[in-house]
Every structure is written in C-alpha cells, then in structure tokens.
Specification:
Length: 383
C-alpha cells in the first residue's frame, strides 16, 4: 500500500510527463477524422479570391522585402489582394507600403496602436477574399504555398490551416530542425488528424473568412481562429506542405522573453474563454486544450512537487533512489548546458537545457499572470 506522499510523488511524475509523452500516445490511439472532398470542389477549375493580411509595426527595414516575397507567390493577380495592417507604425513603414499601390497592395493604417489582433480586425473588415491568409513580416512564404492551401480547403471540414515552421540561420540557410520543433509539428499533425489543432502558427496561417466574424482582439489570433473553427463546425489542421520560413532570433534572451509573452497571452486567452475547458460544450477540443495547454503549463509545478516528494520517499523503496538520481542527472545536464554555449550544441545537453528553459519561462509567466500581468500591445521580435 502506497503512503500519501508516495501517491503524491507518482501523481506528480505522471503529471510532469503527460503533456509531452502520454498525450501523444492517447492521440495515436483515438479514431482519426475522415477527410472529405466534395465532387464539385474536385472538378472546379476556378480559383477562390484570396486576401493576404500582413501585420506590421515599425518594419521599415523589412516590409519591402516582405511585400516583394508575397507578390512572387504563384497565384493569379486577379484573384488576390494584399492588405498591410500597420499597427500605429511611427517610422517609414506606411510610406513604403503606399509605394506598392499599383500592385494591388493596400495600406490599412490603424492610428491607435491596440495590438496585432486589432490591426488584423481592421484588415478583415476590408478584405474581399473568401480565404484569408495571415502572415508576419519576418515570415518568408514559398511560391507554391497557395496551391497547397487551396487544395487543403477542398476538404469542407477544414476551417483553418496552419503552416509548419522552418527556421533560417543568419546567412539565410535553412537550419536543421531542432528536436522540439520536430516534436511540435508532429503533435500538431496528430491533433489535426484526430480533431483540430488548439493553436495555429501565428506567423503564417489561413482560414475561411466566415470564421473571422467572431474575431476577438483580446485573444491571440492563432488560438482564436482554431477555437472559432470548432465553434463554426469546422476544424483547424496543420499542413506539412504549407511552410513558413523565418530567421532565428539572434539574442537567446529575447527568445526567453518571447516564451514568457506567449504563455501569458495564452493564459489570458483561456481565462477569457473558459468554455474551452468544458468538455460538455466543446467535446474533444476541450480535452485537447487541457492536454496541450493546461497540463503543459502545470509541468514546472509538477516537477517541483515531484522532487520534494521524491526526497521524502527515499526510504520507502529503492525505486525512489533511482527516480531521484534520474532527476538530478537531468538537471545537471541542463545546468552545464546553461553554463556553456558550446555544450548546448550537443544533443545530450541541448534537450535538458531547452526543456528547463521552457519550464522556467512557464513558471515565471505563471507568477506574472497571477500577479495581474497582461500583454495586449504586440511588438514583433527583432530577428
């Protein structure tokens, strides 16, 4: 018979590994969503009208290259428009965008800076397209991206499509995919096969315009679009053929700060949409939110309770000594990775370091959120 402290120890252990390891196993065992394509869509040769929405804030250094990249995408000019939503930019961004007016590029100038989602809403209200493609300035889009997006929307169940992330080194080459990025992209594909993603890639995604009728400027658009898709009877999926390329952050400290911002905004989104946690209202989508979001945000606390309870349980059984040594070894690898940039390039140190960095960021963000910290204004990370 396990004592109370032993039960706490094992609950903490399974809580710590659930989101990363057990949840994917559950998804693998669940029935998969059937892909449907209607005959009229399969036989149609007409192209839908598409609106690109690019959100920018003080991007005078990069906006020209971004617009040129978007104009190079293979798609009939008569079937697309480009809207640049400038979120209160104070530099030369707006003037640069106006110079492309003859290329069917329109500036949506938002005078009062209220955040990315507010700027996107201003563009949505003027969009003519039946499909909307959202993209950040830093994201580079391949020329065939729209072909894959249009093909994916042939499935009438799909309300939104997320790109898959690819990172670029400082010299412009495609970086080798890190283990975490590979894992996240794999998990997204699993979620989409079973039901729906709980969050899109905020830097590049597409959706049906009808979904945007429920746009909420106080909720991150990547989460809100996935939620709206489900509420409107659709699903959000990830497409391995739709790729978004963007540079790695030069400063690792900025990457840590970005993680904190992302978690705080995510927590605020759940707090403002508590129904997503109710399985009687949202069904399997609620299970996915609990598994992917809530349980992952609880990992730092599970780890802390696990370590303390493990120490208390040492005399109960030899397995607790093995468990404690495993924890201490993992944390030691993370510590050495933190102290040495060269060691962080070695897989054995990289994974523990990154895992601990993510969870320390979650821990800090949780405390900040509880203390009342909220992030509404958006400023893209400089890459």
């Amino acid at each position: 018979m396990l004592s109370t402290i032993e039960i706490i120890c094992w609950i903490s252990f399974f809580g710590a590994i659930y989101s990363y390891f057990l949840y994917p196993i559950v998804l693998l065992g669940l029935p998969k969503r059937q892909v449907r394509e209607t005959e009229d869509m399969l036989q149609s040769t007409s192209q839908p009208f598409i609106t690109f929405i690019i959100t920018a804030f003080n991007e005078e250094q990069n906006i020209k290259e971004k617009i040129e990249n978007t104009l190079e995408i293979n798609f009939p000019e008569t079937q697309r428009e480009i809207l640049v939503a400038s979120d209160g930019s104070t530099d030369a961004t707006n003037d640069i965008v106006r110079a492309f007016a003859n290329n069917n590029v329109k500036l949506i100038e938002v005078q009062e800076r209220k955040g990315k989602e507010n700027a996107q809403l201003a563009a949505i209200q003027q969009a003519k397209g039946e499909l909307l493609v959202f993209s950040d300035v830093a994201t580079r889009i391949p020329q065939d991206a729209l072909d894959h997006i249009v093909k994916a929307f042939n499935d009438p169940q799909i309300g939104a499509i997320s790109s898959e992330d690819r990172f670029l080194t400082q010299d412009g080459k495609v970086a080798g995919e890190g283990a975490y990025v590979k894992y996240e992209m794999w998990l997204r594909r699993l979620e989409g096969k079973v039901n729906s993603l709980v969050g899109l890639s905020g830097s590049f995604f597409a959706c049906r315009k009808e979904i945007c009728k429920r746009w909420d400027i106080n909720v991150p658009s990547d989460f809100n679009t996935a939620l709206n898709s489900v509420e409107c009877g659709f699903v959000a999926v990830s497409d391995a053929n739709v790729l978004g390329f963007y540079p790695n952050l030069k400063d690792e400290k900025k990457e840590y700060a970005r993680k904190i911002r992302t978690v705080i905004r995510g927590m605020a989104a759940i707090a403002s949409k508590p129904k997503v946690l109710n399985p009687f209202q949202m069904g399997i989508f609620s299970f996915q939110v609990w598994s992917h979001k809530i349980m992952r945000w609880l990992v730092p606390w599970f780890l802390l309770v696990l370590l303390v309870s493990n120490v208390v349980c040492l005399d109960a059984h030899w397995i607790y000594l093995v468990l404690l040594l495993a924890q201490l070894s993992f944390y030691s690898l993370a510590f050495f990775g933190w102290t040495s940039a060269s060691l962080r390039n070695i897989f054995l140190f990289k994974i523990p370091f990154f895992f601990m960095q993510v969870n320390i960021a979650i821990w800090q963000a949780s405390l900040m959120f509880i203390a009342g910290k909220r992030i509404t204004k958006w400023e893209p990370s400089k890459r």
